Amino acid sequence: MNKLEAKDVNLHYGEKHALKGISMGIKANSVTAFIGPSGCGKSTFLRCFNRMNDLIDNCRVEGEILIDGRDIYKNRINVVDHRKKIGMVFQKPNPFPKSIYENVAYGLRINGISHKKYLDETVEKSLRQAALWDEVKDDLKKSALALSGGQQQRLCIARTLAVEPSVILMDEPASALDPISTAKIEELIHDLKDRYTIVIVTHNMQQAARVSDNTAFFYLGELIEYDETSNIFTNPAKEATQNYVTGRFG
Amino acid sequence: MNNARKNEIKDNAFKVFALVCTSVGLIVLGLLLYNIISVGLTRINWDFITNLPSRRPGKAGIYTALLGMIWVVTLTLIISFPIGIGAGVYLEEYGKKNPFAKFIEINIANLAGVPSIIYGILGLELFGRLLALGNSILAASLTLSLLVLPIVIVATREAVKAVPGSLREASYGLGATRWQTISRIVLPASFGSILTGLILAVSRAVGETAPLIVVGALVYVPFAPKTPMDQFTVLPIQIFNWTSRPQSGFVVNAAAAIIILLMFVFILNGFAVFLRNRHNRRVKY
Amino acid sequence: MQKVKEKIIEAILLICSSITVLTTIGIIIILAIETFQFFKDVSIVEFFTGTEWTPLFANKKFGILPLVSGTLLTTFIAILVALPLGLTIAVYLNEYADKRFKAVIKPLLEVLAAIPTVVYGFFALTFITPILQSFIPSLAGFNALSAGLVMGIMIIPYVSSMSEDALSAVPNSLREAAYGMGSTRLQTAFKVMLPAASSGVIVSVILAISRAIGETMIVAVAAGQEPRLTFNPLNSIETITTYIVQVSMGDVPQNSIEFRSIFAAGITLFGLTFILNNISFWMKRKFVQRYE
Questions:
Q1: What strands, in cross-sheet order, belong to the sheet with A59-67?
Q2: What are the boundaries of the signal sequence (chain C) (predicted)?
């Protein structure tokens, strides 16, 4: 069974038809990249998986999105609980204006966990997983805003890991970072794959090629092609995909 | 004389005129301060601050007025801040698209322009007579609370609006509820700007005179208030009273009391400006 | 469980915002009820057309016109001061002054609006009036002129700051276009920028007028308590607000007709400012839409 499954998903912003009949399945413990030119709907689609689009006015989603076989757009589902299982990392690092420690502990605290020892352990574990522990272990009380951009983004990843999601959605996580920080994030994605299912939206095709197992190409709100990454980049079935990955447009 | 030259002269003439205009305001401000300080400064001493009111200007002090002001302003704070912040948060975070919130918004814009003396009439009838609070400190504080509420609400809305949406998204993404996001992320992040607005509201309450006169503040209170149900006077009313007396000794007293009042107002405003600048420099998302 | 808590919190916050609506309703109901009582004893025609206002005398007359004229007279003088000064300052700060000068002057001028008005009253009565009297010997000790002038200074920042904000909101491209066609700075400022910001500027002036009409302590201290139908600024007059203060300070028994007269005066004042505030609110709406 697929970890994530989309069945004929359509999304409208008011009059605009932003996603057109998208169906795809994503396997557990894999990295899937969404690529495509700006405005093709890849970020919008990503945000369907944790119902982030609910926060936008007059946005309508049709079709089914299943996680572990459960439809998350069914009425009975508790959106807040659902979002705890699906972590999300955003394009620009967005640490809270709190200390490094409190950033990571936030997800636990909002669930009413205040046991000091447990918090300490989880913060350390999450920071280690995000490969940030060694850099910040002496400054946990320092403001997160004092970190560099790359460190901030890894902090945001650690913050996500702390609530132990099974899926991590990444919306162009490295687009605002320098090359060295980007390399660290990519390395991290590779390490996290064993324990999490990762979906990453990226503008950068080399990045998609480096980090992902499967790649989906979106264009004008449609899923054009979805295959193993090596196939997409070396032997795409569709001409549009071929044109995009070879840099002819987008 | 050619056209370009004429334009240059006009341009320079305007510049001079504008500088004169700007100075008029500042010169008057300077004269006002000079006038008050030169009349009142020598009158200020410890006795002036700790003495009870008296019919003889040389013995009169501002003790009861000062305490009355502290009582009224503190209670106003306690009443208006939670309500104002709550309302501001509601309008910005919950009520974005519902028509009732739109209506409240228009209403607040209107309230901000209602003359303060009208609030006095409301307070007199609603708190003084209907709720039978009479001319007590509590009635006055409730009245001033309604008066400063629009200031607190507008300041809260502006502050909350300035918190970037990405922080809210991150919080929702971690499974936080709306109220968790507001109470743990949005309010702490906007605290500095909200505080600036709150201080300006306090400053307004400190100088407010007319509504308190209508609510029934006394001009002669021979004792210091001890409970919120006591009668009271405040510094601006004491000043008003002394200013309208014929003996020149009371004019000196009024000026001295004004110096004390202005100290409160300037310290509060200065603090607000300081906070605003510090906040603007510190937080860059 | 958590959902219930969220709903309760939302309800509490909604109640907080509703208090502002209740305030407005409260003001209107209270003024209306008491005024209704008042008009049982006093003819509404006399109230709006009578030229004498003597509720505190034995021979009571209830013509509001003297109070209205007093209010309009002081407001007119104040606007005569604040409008040219405030507008010139706004244009200068926006078009001529460098950033640092503006950053210092704007908050400094705003201090004028932060000073409690009773202080201005004191200043008008004990400083400005004696100075004016040395030029105009016929000036009364309490007079509309001195109160109006000081009030004008007080509301300068209302005009200057808000107009300057409106001018700053005009897109820079408009200014560049004007310069590009060879306009001088003065021409650009007054023929292009000011008209483009006109609705914002008008809003600022309307709010300043509304503020002046409702101003109480300056006129209560310095303009006198003699209701008289005159437009001579050298006379002692009485404004609507002063009258309300006068009755509140006195020993008028509640539920008497003199007491009720402050509600009739109050509703007149409220009506005047309510109209002005609404005009400015709708103008602001229109103005904001234009540049978004």
A1: A16-26, A4-13, A59-67, A70-71
A2: none
Residue B39, token pair as written in the block: 């009349």
Q: How far is A40 from chain B (nearest CA, A)?
A: 21
- Integer angstrom CA distances of residue B196 from B88, B190, B193, B269: 14, 10, 5, 9
Q: Which two tokens stand for residue B22?
A: 């700007």
Q: Burial of C254 by CB count in 10 Å (0-12 exposed, 13-18 middle, 19+ buried)?
A: exposed
Chain A nearest C-alpha distance from B167 (Å): 6
Q: Residue A95's closest CA among B177, B185, B187, B159? A: B185
B48-282 has which CATH code?
1.10.3720.10
What sign has the CA pseudo-torsion B183, B189, B193, B198? Answer: positive
pLDDT in tens, A133-158: 999 999 999 999 999 999 999 999 99
* pLDDT tens column, C134-154: 999 999 999 999 999 999 999
Residue entry with tokens 């009030």: C151
| Number of C-beta neighbours around residue B165 at 10 A | 9
**SS3 sequence, chain A?**
CCCEEEEEEEEEECCEEEEEEEEEEECCCCEEEEECCCCCCHHHHHHHCCCHHHHCCCEEEEEEEEECCEECCCCCCCHHHHHHHEEEECCCCCCCCCEHHHHHHHHHHCCCCCCHHHHHHHHHHHHHHCCCHHHHCCCCCCEHHHCCHHHHHHHHHHHHHHCCCCEEEEECCCCCCCHHHHHHHHHHHHHHCCCCEEEEECCCHHHHHHHCCEEEEEECCEEEEEEEHHHHHHCCCCHHHHHHHCCCCC
CB–CB contact B89 C116 (8 Å): no
- Mean pLDDT, to the nearest integer, of B20-48? 91
Nearest to B212 by CA among B163, B279, B145: B145
Rounded to whole angstroms, the Cα distance separating A123 from A158 reads 8
Q: Could you give the C-alpha distances from B23 to A80, B37, B278, C122, in angstroms and in order?
A: 59, 20, 28, 22
Could you tell me the CATH superfamily of domain A4-245?
P-loop containing nucleotide triphosphate hydrolases (3.40.50.300)
- What are the boundaries of each domain within chain A? 4-245
Which of chain B's residues have a Cβ under 8 Å away from the Cβ of A96? 167, 170-171, 185, 189
Interface of B with A (CB under 8 A): 96-97, 164, 166-177, 180, 184-185, 188-189, 283-285
A57, A90, A109 ranked by CB distance to B169: nearest: A90
Rounded Cα distance between C77 and C87, Å, is 16
- Measured distance CA(A85)–CA(C232) in Å, rounded: 77
Chains that touch A (3 or more CB pairs under 8 A): B
pLDDT band of residue C272 (cuts 50, 70, 90) is very high
Q: Are C273 and B113 in contact (CB under 8 A)?
A: yes
Judged by CB atoms closer than 8 Å, whether chains meet at B214 and C248 is answered as yes
Contacts of A66 (CB under 8 A, 6+ apart): A2, A4, A5, A6, A7, A72
Optimal mutation site among B174, B190, B279, interface A, most CBs of chain A within 10 A: B174
Cα–Cα dist B103/A95, whole Å = 35
Q: Checking phi first, is residue A164 left (phi over 0); if not, alpha (psi -120 to 50) or beta?
A: left
Structure tokens at C32: 């209306």
- Token duo for residue B225: 């208030």
| Count of positions (residues) in chain C | 292
- How does residue B224 score in pLDDT terms, banded at 50, 70 and 90? confident
Candidates C23, C109, C280, partner chain B, best to mutate (most B CBs within 10 A): C23
The terminus-to-terminus CA distance of chain A in angstroms comes to 34
Q: Residues with Cβ < 8 Å from C257, sequence gap 6 or more?
A: C38, C41, C42, C55, C60
